[in-house]
UniProtKB/TrEMBL annotation:
The chain crosses the membrane at residues 20-44, 75-93, 105-123, 135-156, 165-186. GO terms for biological process: siderophore-iron import into cell. GO terms for molecular function: transmembrane transporter activity. InterPro entries: ABC_BtuC-like, ABC_transptr_permease_BtuC. This is Iron ABC transporter permease. It is a multi-pass membrane protein. It comes from the Bacteria. Pfam families: FecCD.
Protein backbone atom coordinates (compact mmCIF):
# COMPACT_ATOMS: atom_id res chain seq x y z
CA UNK A 1 0.00 0.00 0.00
CA UNK A 2 1.36 3.41 -0.93
CA UNK A 3 1.70 6.31 1.47
CA UNK A 4 -1.09 8.16 -0.32
CA UNK A 5 -3.54 5.29 0.09
CA UNK A 6 -2.53 4.91 3.73
CA UNK A 7 -3.26 8.58 4.38
CA UNK A 8 -6.56 8.25 2.56
CA UNK A 9 -7.53 5.28 4.72
CA UNK A 10 -6.55 7.05 7.94
CA UNK A 11 -8.55 10.09 6.88
CA UNK A 12 -11.56 7.90 6.16
CA UNK A 13 -11.22 6.24 9.56
CA UNK A 14 -11.09 9.63 11.30
CA UNK A 15 -14.15 10.80 9.39
CA UNK A 16 -16.00 7.65 10.41
CA UNK A 17 -15.06 8.21 14.07
CA UNK A 18 -16.17 11.84 13.94
CA UNK A 19 -19.48 10.91 12.36
CA UNK A 20 -19.98 8.24 15.00
CA UNK A 21 -19.28 10.72 17.81
CA UNK A 22 -21.67 13.26 16.34
CA UNK A 23 -24.33 10.59 15.93
CA UNK A 24 -23.95 9.53 19.55
CA UNK A 25 -24.37 13.11 20.74
CA UNK A 26 -27.40 13.60 18.54
CA UNK A 27 -29.00 10.35 19.67
CA UNK A 28 -28.33 11.24 23.32
CA UNK A 29 -30.07 14.58 22.87
CA UNK A 30 -33.01 12.90 21.15
CA UNK A 31 -33.23 10.36 23.97
CA UNK A 32 -33.27 13.09 26.61
CA UNK A 33 -35.90 15.03 24.67
CA UNK A 34 -38.13 11.99 24.20
CA UNK A 35 -37.78 11.08 27.88
CA UNK A 36 -38.79 14.58 28.90
CA UNK A 37 -41.73 14.49 26.50
CA UNK A 38 -42.84 11.14 27.91
CA UNK A 39 -42.87 12.62 31.40
CA UNK A 40 -45.24 15.34 30.22
CA UNK A 41 -47.62 13.27 28.10
CA UNK A 42 -50.20 10.76 29.24
CA UNK A 43 -53.79 10.46 30.37
CA UNK A 44 -52.93 13.12 32.94
CA UNK A 45 -51.04 15.74 30.85
CA UNK A 46 -48.67 17.99 32.75
CA UNK A 47 -46.67 21.09 31.96
CA UNK A 48 -42.85 20.88 31.68
CA UNK A 49 -42.41 23.23 34.65
CA UNK A 50 -44.70 21.05 36.75
CA UNK A 51 -42.68 17.97 35.82
CA UNK A 52 -39.43 19.75 36.65
CA UNK A 53 -40.82 20.80 40.02
CA UNK A 54 -41.96 17.27 40.82
CA UNK A 55 -38.52 15.90 39.91
CA UNK A 56 -36.50 18.43 41.89
CA UNK A 57 -38.79 18.71 44.92
CA UNK A 58 -40.92 15.57 45.21
CA UNK A 59 -43.91 15.78 47.51
CA UNK A 60 -46.84 13.53 48.40
CA UNK A 61 -49.06 15.06 45.74
CA UNK A 62 -50.80 13.17 42.95
CA UNK A 63 -48.47 14.73 40.40
CA UNK A 64 -45.37 13.50 42.21
CA UNK A 65 -46.87 10.01 42.40
CA UNK A 66 -47.60 10.00 38.67
CA UNK A 67 -44.10 11.21 37.80
CA UNK A 68 -42.05 9.13 40.23
CA UNK A 69 -44.07 5.93 40.47
CA UNK A 70 -45.77 5.60 37.07
CA UNK A 71 -43.92 7.39 34.30
CA UNK A 72 -40.29 7.56 35.41
CA UNK A 73 -39.86 3.81 36.09
CA UNK A 74 -41.12 3.00 32.60
CA UNK A 75 -38.74 5.47 30.99
CA UNK A 76 -35.71 4.29 32.97
CA UNK A 77 -36.55 0.63 32.32
CA UNK A 78 -36.98 1.29 28.60
CA UNK A 79 -33.57 2.98 28.44
CA UNK A 80 -31.86 0.14 30.31
CA UNK A 81 -33.49 -2.54 28.17
CA UNK A 82 -32.53 -0.70 25.00
CA UNK A 83 -28.93 -0.34 26.20
CA UNK A 84 -28.75 -4.04 27.06
CA UNK A 85 -30.12 -5.09 23.68
CA UNK A 86 -27.74 -2.77 21.83
CA UNK A 87 -24.74 -4.02 23.78
CA UNK A 88 -25.68 -7.66 23.20
CA UNK A 89 -26.07 -7.10 19.47
CA UNK A 90 -22.78 -5.21 19.11
CA UNK A 91 -20.82 -7.84 21.03
CA UNK A 92 -22.28 -10.71 19.03
CA UNK A 93 -21.60 -8.94 15.73
CA UNK A 94 -18.01 -8.39 16.80
CA UNK A 95 -17.55 -12.04 17.75
CA UNK A 96 -18.90 -13.53 14.53
CA UNK A 97 -17.54 -10.68 12.34
CA UNK A 98 -20.90 -10.28 10.66
CA UNK A 99 -22.84 -6.99 10.73
CA UNK A 100 -26.09 -8.86 10.06
CA UNK A 101 -25.77 -11.15 13.07
CA UNK A 102 -27.96 -10.65 16.11
CA UNK A 103 -28.97 -12.84 19.06
CA UNK A 104 -32.22 -13.77 17.33
CA UNK A 105 -30.51 -14.65 14.04
CA UNK A 106 -28.05 -17.12 15.59
CA UNK A 107 -30.68 -18.76 17.79
CA UNK A 108 -29.75 -17.36 21.20
CA UNK A 109 -32.98 -15.42 21.59
CA UNK A 110 -35.01 -18.43 20.46
CA UNK A 111 -33.32 -20.60 23.08
CA UNK A 112 -34.12 -18.07 25.80
CA UNK A 113 -37.72 -17.83 24.60
CA UNK A 114 -38.16 -21.60 24.53
CA UNK A 115 -36.78 -21.99 28.05
CA UNK A 116 -38.92 -19.13 29.37
CA UNK A 117 -42.12 -20.45 27.78
CA UNK A 118 -41.32 -23.94 29.05
CA UNK A 119 -40.91 -22.49 32.53
CA UNK A 120 -44.16 -20.51 32.31
CA UNK A 121 -46.40 -23.11 30.68
CA UNK A 122 -45.23 -26.35 32.28
CA UNK A 123 -42.99 -25.95 35.29
CA UNK A 124 -44.54 -22.90 36.95
CA UNK A 125 -48.05 -24.33 36.65
CA UNK A 126 -47.27 -27.83 37.88
CA UNK A 127 -44.83 -26.70 40.58
CA UNK A 128 -46.28 -23.33 41.44
CA UNK A 129 -45.58 -23.77 45.13
CA UNK A 130 -41.89 -24.39 44.51
CA UNK A 131 -41.12 -22.06 41.64
CA UNK A 132 -41.44 -18.31 41.49
CA UNK A 133 -41.82 -15.91 38.60
CA UNK A 134 -38.62 -14.25 39.80
CA UNK A 135 -36.68 -17.28 38.55
CA UNK A 136 -37.89 -16.66 34.99
CA UNK A 137 -34.82 -14.59 33.96
CA UNK A 138 -32.56 -17.38 35.21
CA UNK A 139 -34.48 -19.92 33.13
CA UNK A 140 -34.21 -17.70 30.05
CA UNK A 141 -30.48 -17.24 30.58
CA UNK A 142 -29.96 -20.99 30.89
CA UNK A 143 -31.88 -21.48 27.66
CA UNK A 144 -29.79 -18.85 25.89
CA UNK A 145 -26.57 -20.41 27.16
CA UNK A 146 -27.64 -23.89 26.09
CA UNK A 147 -28.60 -22.57 22.67
CA UNK A 148 -25.26 -20.77 22.26
CA UNK A 149 -23.33 -23.93 23.21
CA UNK A 150 -25.41 -26.00 20.80
CA UNK A 151 -24.82 -23.56 17.95
CA UNK A 152 -21.08 -23.50 18.66
CA UNK A 153 -20.83 -27.29 18.82
CA UNK A 154 -22.76 -27.82 15.58
CA UNK A 155 -20.85 -25.08 13.76
CA UNK A 156 -17.45 -26.36 14.90
CA UNK A 157 -15.30 -27.83 12.15
CA UNK A 158 -11.59 -27.19 12.63
CA UNK A 159 -12.65 -23.94 14.21
CA UNK A 160 -15.75 -21.79 14.11
CA UNK A 161 -16.64 -20.01 10.90
CA UNK A 162 -18.94 -16.97 11.18
CA UNK A 163 -20.94 -18.12 8.17
CA UNK A 164 -21.50 -21.57 9.71
CA UNK A 165 -22.54 -19.98 13.00
CA UNK A 166 -25.17 -17.87 11.24
CA UNK A 167 -26.49 -20.75 9.12
CA UNK A 168 -26.69 -23.17 12.05
CA UNK A 169 -28.23 -20.47 14.21
CA UNK A 170 -30.95 -19.74 11.68
CA UNK A 171 -31.90 -23.42 11.53
CA UNK A 172 -31.95 -23.82 15.31
CA UNK A 173 -33.91 -20.58 15.70
CA UNK A 174 -36.61 -21.94 13.39
CA UNK A 175 -36.77 -25.24 15.28
CA UNK A 176 -36.90 -23.57 18.70
CA UNK A 177 -39.49 -21.10 17.45
CA UNK A 178 -41.68 -24.02 16.41
CA UNK A 179 -41.23 -25.57 19.85
CA UNK A 180 -42.18 -22.30 21.53
CA UNK A 181 -45.33 -22.03 19.43
CA UNK A 182 -46.27 -25.62 20.24
CA UNK A 183 -45.92 -25.02 23.98
CA UNK A 184 -48.12 -21.93 23.78
CA UNK A 185 -50.79 -23.78 21.78
CA UNK A 186 -51.05 -26.73 24.19
CA UNK A 187 -50.85 -24.66 27.38
CA UNK A 188 -53.65 -23.13 29.40
CA UNK A 189 -55.02 -19.75 28.39
CA UNK A 190 -53.59 -17.90 31.39
CA UNK A 191 -50.12 -19.37 30.91
CA UNK A 192 -50.25 -18.71 27.17
CA UNK A 193 -51.21 -15.07 27.76
CA UNK A 194 -48.34 -14.64 30.23
CA UNK A 195 -45.95 -16.20 27.74
CA UNK A 196 -47.15 -13.88 24.97
CA UNK A 197 -46.61 -10.83 27.15
CA UNK A 198 -43.11 -11.99 28.05
CA UNK A 199 -42.19 -12.76 24.43
CA UNK A 200 -43.39 -9.44 23.04
CA UNK A 201 -42.20 -7.36 25.98
CA UNK A 202 -44.17 -4.72 27.82
CA UNK A 203 -43.51 -1.71 30.01
CA UNK A 204 -47.04 -1.76 31.37
CA UNK A 205 -47.13 -1.32 35.15
CA UNK A 206 -43.33 -1.15 35.30
CA UNK A 207 -42.08 -0.33 38.79
CA UNK A 208 -38.78 0.55 40.40
CA UNK A 209 -38.46 -3.07 41.44
CA UNK A 210 -38.24 -4.02 37.77
CA UNK A 211 -35.51 -1.44 37.28
CA UNK A 212 -33.58 -2.77 40.26
CA UNK A 213 -34.01 -6.30 38.94
CA UNK A 214 -32.35 -5.41 35.63
CA UNK A 215 -29.70 -3.03 36.93
CA UNK A 216 -27.41 -5.66 38.58
CA UNK A 217 -27.29 -7.75 35.40
CA UNK A 218 -26.44 -4.73 33.28
CA UNK A 219 -23.80 -3.48 35.71
CA UNK A 220 -22.24 -6.94 35.88
CA UNK A 221 -22.16 -7.43 32.10
CA UNK A 222 -20.90 -4.00 31.08
CA UNK A 223 -17.39 -4.30 32.65
CA UNK A 224 -16.84 -7.51 30.71
CA UNK A 225 -16.54 -5.38 27.57
CA UNK A 226 -14.08 -2.90 29.06
CA UNK A 227 -10.91 -5.08 28.74
CA UNK A 228 -11.48 -5.14 24.99
CA UNK A 229 -11.48 -1.48 23.92
CA UNK A 230 -10.02 -2.38 20.52
CA UNK A 231 -12.67 -4.95 19.73
CA UNK A 232 -13.76 -4.19 16.15
CA UNK A 233 -17.24 -2.81 15.82
CA UNK A 234 -19.44 -2.90 12.69
CA UNK A 235 -18.40 0.58 11.55
CA UNK A 236 -14.76 -0.56 11.68
CA UNK A 237 -15.54 -3.48 9.38
CA UNK A 238 -16.98 -1.12 6.80
CA UNK A 239 -13.70 0.80 6.68
CA UNK A 240 -11.60 -2.36 6.39
CA UNK A 241 -13.79 -3.87 3.71
CA UNK A 242 -13.67 -0.71 1.62
CA UNK A 243 -9.90 -0.67 2.07
CA UNK A 244 -9.47 -4.24 0.87
CA UNK A 245 -12.19 -4.50 -1.77
CA UNK A 246 -12.65 -0.93 -2.89
CA UNK A 247 -16.45 -1.03 -2.72
CA UNK A 248 -19.18 0.21 -0.40
CA UNK A 249 -21.08 -2.27 1.72
CA UNK A 250 -24.35 -0.47 2.35
CA UNK A 251 -25.51 -3.02 4.92
CA UNK A 252 -22.48 -2.39 7.11
CA UNK A 253 -23.07 1.34 6.96
Amino acid sequence: MTQSSTLTYESGANNESNRLLHSLWLLSLLLAASAGLSLCLGSFPTQPLQVLGALTAPTHSDLAFIIWQLRLPRIVLAILVGAALAMAGAILQSIVRNPLASPDVVGITSGAALAAVLYLTLLSTSLSTLLSIHWLPAAAMLGALASALLVASLAWKNGISPSRVVLVGIGLAAAMGAGTTLLIVISEDSAAMTAYVWLTGSLYAAQWGDVMGLMPWLLAATPLCLPFPDMPMPWHWAIKWRKGLGCLFCVAE
